[in-house]
Design goal:
Blueprint (H helix, E strand, L loop, with lengths): L9 H29 L2 E6 L12 H21 L4 E8 L6 H13 L5 H15 L9 H12 L6 E4 L3 H10 L2 H18 L2
Parallel strand pairs: 1-2, 2-3
Helix pairs in contact: 1-2, 3-4, 4-7
């Protein structure tokens, strides 16, 4: 879900957390007794590069993914004594319906408000980027990583897949907050200028 913080209703924000955090938590709680019984298991939580690196007009989305990252890290510690692995998958740009799902609601949320123009440009540029094979990887990169994770005896705690995922996380890790913000704003301005 994308939209300026003041344009997004609490109902929509709660729905974002229901999908990205609480639904996943319920599923995890349901399988844990079986994994503990068999003294093994691997839980793969699909987060996003957006679980560590923020962008424009996506505060609630990023908040839900940041929450998932911290929750997964804590869960990994809790489950280690039972030989249950917790892995976080952090996709970057992948060609999916993501842009289609966020496009129209972003436009509707911003209509007539202070963020209408920037929302239009962002929606158009995101749709173009996700549908462009040079900026978005095919979905098979995610399924390939999933196969790798479930077949690993001792999987890594995190896997990054998709276009620009590693680059985004590297920038976030090594740039100061202000420098990262400048890079994101500058990049978004260039992308949105091209979307006009």
């Amino acid at each position: 879900m994308h939209g300026a913080v003041e344009d997004v209703s609490y109902e929509d924000a709660k729905q974002q957390f229901e999908v990205n955090m609480f639904g996943l938590a319920e599923m995890t709680k349901a399988v844990l007794p079986y994994m503990r019984n068999q003294k093994s298991g691997t839980i793969v939580n699909t987060s996003s590069v957006g679980g560590k690196a923020h962008s424009l007009l996506a505060a609630w989305y990023h908040a839900s993914k940041f929450a998932l990252e911290g929750w997964s890290d804590t869960l990994r510690l809790e489950l280690a004594p039972f030989n249950i692995h917790v892995v976080v998958l952090e996709p970057g740009g992948v060609s999916t319906e993501f842009a289609d799902v966020l496009h129209q609601p972003l436009l509707e949320r911003s209509k007539g408000g202070a963020y209408e123009e920037v929302s239009k440009k962002l929606a158009t540029s995101l749709k173009a980027a996700i549908n462009d094979s040079s900026t978005a990887a095919p979905p098979s990169v995610i399924s390939d990583v999933m196969v790798k994770v479930v077949n690993a005896k001792k999987p890594k705690t995190r896997y990054v897949a998709g276009r620009f995922g590693r680059e985004m996380l590297m920038m976030r890790r090594f740039l100061s907050d202000r420098m990262y913000d400048r890079v994101i704003v500058s990049t978004m301005n260039r992308v949105m200028a091209g979307a006009q």
